[in-house]
From TrEMBL:
Protein name according to UniProt: pyridoxal 5'-phosphate synthase
Cofactor(s) in the UniProt record: FMN
Superkingdom of the organism of origin: Eukaryota
Organism in which the protein naturally occurs: Anguilla anguilla
Pyridoxamine 5'-phosphate oxidase N-terminal domain ranges (all copies): 96-211
Length: 279
């Protein structure tokens, strides 16, 4: 009897030990199933190279919280963007309201995308800064169009902006460059963005050299760095709905002779028209 109890206790200890290891290192241990004790903790290691995500979904807004045309705070999409952007900056769950994805494309149609920070917007357009010799800089040089996407997940809201891109004046770039922390200025000089480097220590060494060089003087803005402005021709406001009947209100600036969706479009302000698109 004592021997049997000891054997059961020994088996239970093994199960508990394995369970603790799972808590510390998920997916590292598979408990034996079909045996007495803690067999209901049986875990199958996850194959990170092949995952079925078909059941991965979250709740968005309900129909009672839908985004209707009469809820637009302005018929000028720049002002409407400002309203949503202000909401995002005040939301404690939005980490960086000005983080946006910018998509560019080669002349041959090969796209690329990355996250950058919006540094200003106005009736003229949306401004950001980068290295002119980076991949996006080269693509914008040969194909000066871009798409911006802001996604504020806690608000279930997204804004998409499309339009041609231009470099901003040199002095405007220079003024912004010298408004940045000195460490960021030096970082912009160190990084010949998108070029291949041997290792991180190479960048650290370059950074140390420039910190010493410019410790008592102004960092000159490199000629390969500066700002762009995206001049919007289309701005879409999207709000998610749990039943996937998402709200999409689109503003466009028709060119001379362009025909919109007819009677389903509405006149906005400043040459803009707007309409609802099917989700």
């Amino acid at each position: 009897m004592i021997r049997k109890c000891f054997a059961n206790w020994h088996s239970t200890k093994l199960h508990l030990r394995n369970f603790v290891r799972i808590l510390i290192q998920p997916n590292s241990v598979a408990l034996p199933a079909g045996r007495s004790g803690l067999s209901f903790f049986a875990i199958k290691p996850t194959d990170a190279t092949a995952m079925d995500l078909s059941d991965m979904r979250k709740k968005y807004k309900g129909d009672e919280e839908c985004f209707e045309e009469d809820q637009l705070v302005s018929l000028d999409p720049i002002k409407q963007f400002g309203n949503w952007f202000d909401e995002a900056t005040k939301c404690p769950d939005v980490g960086e309201a000005n983080a946006m994805c910018i998509a560019t494309c080669t002349k041959e149609g090969l796209p690329s995308a990355r996250m950058v920070l919006l540094k200003g917007f106005s009736d003229e357009g949306f401004r950001f800064f980068t290295n002119y010799e980076s991949r996006k800089g080269k693509e914008l040089e040969s194909n000066p169009f871009a798409c911006l996407v802001f996604y504020w997940e806690p608000l279930n809201k997204q804004v998409r902006i499309e339009g041609p891109v231009e470099r901003i004046p040199y002095q405007s770039s220079c003024d912004y460059f010298h408004s940045r922390p000195k460490s960021s200025q030096i970082g912009a000089v160190v990084s010949r963005q998108s070029t291949v480097v041997p290792n991180r220590e190479y960048l650290r060494q370059k950074n140390r050299e420039l910190e010493e060089k410019y410790k008592d003087e102004e960092v000159p803005m490199p000629d390969y760095w500066g700002g762009y402005i995206v001049k919007p021709q289309m701005i879409e406001f999207w709000q998610g709905q749990t039943n996937r009947l998402h709200d999409r209100i689109v503003f466009v600036k028709p060119k001379d002779g362009e025909v919109g969706p007819g009677e389903m479009q509405h006149q906005g302000e400043g040459g803009w028209v707007y309409y609802r698109q099917s989700p």
